[in-house]
Design brief:
about 270 residues; Rossmann fold; 6-phosphogluconate dehydrogenase C-terminal fold; 2 domains; three-stranded mixed sheet; 8 helices
C-alpha cells in the first residue's frame, strides 16, 4: 500500500500532537514545516524544514499555525500547491475561511481537542482519542487520518460552527480569564480545586483568545446574552424551582462525559 504523504504546518500543541500520534504509523510519511521546531522532529520524519515548501507534493496538509496566521499560511501554500493536495485547517473560528477557494483542494475542519498549554513540548499523542473532529465535506484521506488519530469524525455545516464554538469554547475561555481577575487576592489565598478547575482556561495563549474575540465577537456576545438571560430567569424562580433546575442540569452534566472525561453526548 502506498504511504500517505502527510504535511504539518506548525508544531504547536495540535500540529505536534498529530506528529506524535502518527510518527510511528507505517501508513504515513510525514513532512513538517515549522519556523522554530523543525529540528526537534527531523529524525522521525521524511522531511522537516523552516521552508514551507517542505510540504510540497503531499497528499494532505494540516495547517496548524496560530489562528491569527491561518489566512496568511493558506495564501503561502497557494503559491505552490495544486488541486492534487488536500489542505485542511484546524482553526477554532471559521468566519474568515468560509467560501475560500485556492489552487489546492481546501476543506474546513476542527478537532475538538486542545490544551491551555502551548508549544511543541505540550504535544500529546492521546490528545484526539475519543474527541469529535468536525469536518464539512467527506474525503477518504481526511477520514482515515481522523480515525487513525483516534478521533470521532462528525460532519457539520461550518456556517454553524462559530456559533457552536462560542457557546462551548470561546465564551467559557473568556469567562475563565474574567473569573480569575475578579477574585480578590484574599480570595485567591483560600482557593482550592473548584477555582483551579474553573479558571484552567485562563492559562490559554493570549494570542489565541484575542483572535477568538476578533473573529467571533458576534457569536460570543450572543452566547453571553443567553447566559445573562439564564441568570435573570434564575432570580425569578422559587427555591423549589431552583433546586429542580439545578438537579436537572447536574443530571445532564453527569451523563455528558464518560469516566475518562470524553464527550458521549447523544447527537
Amino acid at each position: 500500500m502506498k504511504k500517505i504523504k502527510l504535511g504539518i504546518v506548525g508544531l504547536s500543541v495540535i500540529g505536534a500532537s498529530i506528529f506524535d500520534a502518527l510518527k510511528d504509523n507505517n501508513d504515513y510519511e510525514l513532512y513538517i514545516h515549522s519556523n522554530s521546531g523543525f529540528n526537534k522532529v527531523k529524525e522521525f520524519v521524511k522531511q522537516s524544514s523552516n521552508d514551507i515548501r517542505a510540504v510540497k507534493g503531499c497528499d494532505i496538509v494540516f495547517v496548524c499555525t496560530k489562528l491569527s496566521q491561518t489566512l496568511e499560511t493558506l495564501d503561502k501554500l497557494n503559491q505552490f500547491l495544486d488541486k492534487n493536495t488536500l489542505v485542511v485547517d484546524v482553526a477554532s473560528s471559521k468566519k474568515e475561511l468560509l467560501n475560500k477557494t485556492y489552487n489546492y483542494t481546501f476543506l474546513l475542519s476542527h478537532p475538538m481537542a486542545g490544551s491551555e498549554k502551548t508549544g511543541f513540548e505540550a504535544k500529546d499523542k492521546e490528545l484526539f482519542k475519543g474527541a469529535r473532529w468536525l469536518f464539512e465535506q467527506d474525503n477518504e484521506v481526511l477520514l482515515k487520518v481522523i480515525k487513525d488519530l483516534g478521533a470521532i469524525p462528525l460532519k457539520i455545516s461550518m456556517a454553524e460552527h462559530d456559533s457552536l464554538c462560542a457557546q462551548i469554547s470561546h465564551l467559557p475561555t473568556l469567562l475563565s480569564f474574567l473569573l480569575f481577575d475578579c477574585a480578590s487576592d484574599n480570595a485567591k489565598k483560600i482557593a482550592s480545586s473548584g477555582f483551579r478547575d474553573t479558571t484552567r482556561l485562563a492559562m490559554t495563549n493570549s494570542d489565541l483568545i484575542l483572535s477568538m474575540l476578533k473573529t467571533n465577537e458576534e457569536n460570543i456576545l450572543s452566547a453571553y446574552q443567553k447566559l445573562t438571560d439564564k441568570l435573570n430567569y434564575l432570580q425569578n424562580l422559587s427555591d423549589n424551582e431552583k433546586i429542580k433546575l439545578f438537579e436537572e442540569i447536574s443530571r445532564k452534566r453527569k451523563a455528558m462525559y464518560d469516566k475518562n472525561g470524553k464527550n458521549i453526548f447523544e447527537i
